[in-house]
Amino acid sequence: MIEILSSGALNSVQDRGRRGLLSSGVCRSGAMDIQALDVANALVGNDRDAAAIEVAAFPFRLRFPDRAAVAVTGAIAGARLAGRRLPPWWATEALAGDELTIDPPTVGARVYVAVGGGIDVPPLLGARATDLKSGYGGHEGRGLRRGDRLPLGPRSPGKLPDGGIGALPPPGRDVADRPLRVLPAAEWPEFSEAARELFVTEGWRVTAEADRQGCRLDGPELIRERRRELLSHGIVPGTVQVPPSGRPIIQLAEANTCGGYPKIATVIEADLWRLGQAMPGDTLRFAVVSRDEALAALGETAGWLDRLRSAAALYRVP
Amino acid sequence: MADDFIISDAGTGALLLDVAGGGAFDEGRQARLLALADSLAGADGIDDVVPGMNNLMVAFDPLAIDAGAMQRRLADGWRIAAASGRAGRAHEIAVAYGGPDLRDFAASLGLTVDEVVKRHAGAVYKVAAIGAMPGFPYLSGLDPALATPRRAMPRQGVPKGAVIVGGGQAGIMPITAPSGWHILGHTDFTLFDPHRAAPATLMAGDTVRFIIAGVER
Fold first, then answer.
1. ipTM for the whole predicted complex goes beyond 0.90
2. Which of A145, A70, A57 is nearest to A104 (CA)?
3. What is the greatest pairwise CA distance in chain B?
4. Within this chain, do residues B127 and B195 fall inside the same structural domain, yes or no?
5. Which of A19, A183, A270 sits opposite B9 (nearest CB)?
6. In percent, how much of chain A has pLDDT > 70?
7. What are the residue boundaries of the Carboxyltransferase domain, all occurrences included (chain B) (predicted)?
8. Which CATH fold topology does A180-297 show?
9. Residue B194 lies in a domain
10. Each residue of A31-73: pLDDT tens digit?
């Protein structure tokens, strides 16, 4: 069990999200930065489906009544365990009574805290992810608050070595200002050539309307030459819609499962984490890639995570 | 006619099959799409099969399934899909007609409240798709006399249970959420319960009739 000492309502229990229920109107939900979640789980020896805490409101404090392995990944934020500083992307053993404090990030928006054994809230619709918009899943279908006690699952055998272990950030994460890679989507050909050019050359500012549902961008107006109404259709996280205002909206983890706005592109799966770490005022750029490049990027991350899991297992001590 | 479709990328691991041909919603094509959806659902490597309005999105694991093969599977599946697919269940949903929009809605169409209620409750609706919100049904079959543009300003909180129409479509709010559709009444019918294995009450292919439980004029 862990005990929340201070939290904002935007902090929630998240895992990799729900699959197979989009046709019931149930969005995927899950971590906004699945890479960081995966790394945190790998470092403490959890299964990849284990749930962790997504921290988007700071400062965040929790207490370990019992000894536990803890990993902190994602945004670069000052984290202290029992007063000692934890480096970024690091995991260590917390002793009974230790407190973990996480200050606002200096880079990025969301920090992931995984605990050995995973946050063991009851699974709902195949996942432990909280759907904050609809109010189900996770811990009582809501964000965390002071006094919440979260159960932990059985942790894997062994423990972390003295001083803990760390990971390098996943491939490409340390490259600042790299464009978001996209594949053209259904209505791409209906935008003017000038609009398509603007889309990939301009910087797009993240507005204050950025949350787990989506991210509204500001920049020049993208003109769609063919102004026909679309019938409602299924959408996935990463879909870049262009509503009549001409300014893109990127649909994310808690987006509606169907939409009707034209879609100019889709952010590739391997780059979705960057939208989970985008802050209002940040500038994003887009670059069109081929399906092969998108697949290679996904495969690279998957292979890197597999190696990290094997390496982390080797460092565990009896 | 059978070849009149477009398949586009929806990111690395999803494809969108659009059979609308840029035209209006067609019931026959929808029935064929639902049959295609049933033939794909649950297959290895396929995460989600999502019927929309005359379109179908399939999400899959792109490291397990080749997108080109998936594209051919969709194209071939659409060509041979027969409209005899889903049987569908019939639902009767009791509506207390009234609320903030009903009178203005009737007036804007030059109809009385009773005429609006009679037309809305007189139709047999087909659940074309479930989506947007948890359990939200896109209902086709609205009397064309009740088709109106959506509200100029969406309402921030349209309550759970609101029976609504927008454009040529009808629906029911499964949760309280923003919507630009017009409210014609209210129902206690449960559309969504996350604690059931199949959380949405209605399924694409079902039929719905509204029963008049009362009219507030």
1. yes
2. A57
3. 58
4. yes
5. A183
6. 100
7. 5-203
8. Cyclophilin (2.40.100)
9. yes
10. 999 999 999 999 999 999 999 999 999 999 999 999 999 999 9
